Amino acid sequence: MGLFRTTMFSLKRSASRPSPAGAASPHFKIPRTDMRPQLAPDDAYLSYHDVRLTREDVDTIKNDWLTDNAIAFWQEYLEHEKLNAYPKANIILLRPSMAFLLMKTQDPLSLKSALPDFQKTSHIFLPVNDCRSVDVAEGGSHWSLLLVSVIDGVAFHYDSLSPSNISEAKLVAHRISQLLGKPLKFINLEDSPQQENSMDCGVYVCLLMQHLLISKLLMAHAQDKISMSMRGKEVDATGGRKEMLRIIEARRKEGERRRSRSHSPYTHGSKSRSPPRIGDENENVES
Prior knowledge:
globular; Adenoviral Proteinase, Chain; 5-stranded mixed β-sheet; alpha/beta; disordered C terminus; 3-stranded mixed β-sheet
């Protein structure tokens, strides 16, 4: 895939941040397909490449504020099942944990060895969290999405409760700019779709990331000018949650099938304590 340029058209739109106490939650039930005893919140539910989803992570996808791990799973899914089909694309989906470390460090160059090599990268996706303390696990109350177009020197910010995360996003953009060794123009896209409650921000991040990656960047031809505006884009958060859960359940079933095939006939009836696993490195490994 050749290099392509991004452009932006904005439409002013803002929304005040609703109170969590008045949050509306999506009401739907996910059919239970797993007849094992119910797992505790910290119990592993699925091992998918480099992400180990817990029962709690899966439960947040049903009707709550998404955990870091739930968003990291979606990024793994997009990488392995969408982005891998475009080997010439130089696009990086940075995990929430690394984006948070970038925001909190005073010297982003100290993280260089732990980060991907951005030398040939065209675009970087970063989930932004408003957590203030490095000591609070799963802290913060809002997610937004930063898309850095390295080739254009622009950082596009998509906030579903604009402008809630604008200061955090500007700081992450500044840290990335330091790492890249080049200035970045920060643009807060005021036409970003706005959520209707205080819990769907992480889902919006996942769905906008998917739309921007697949429908815009990966579908572009070399030297195309791409509008990064989300004007008129509708986000079905409830449908997005269902789709994420459907994908997780399908991979969990596949992991169960792989595990049952790998079991020795001499261990019939034994039950593994490890979660179903999906990953090229462990397809033929007995759990």
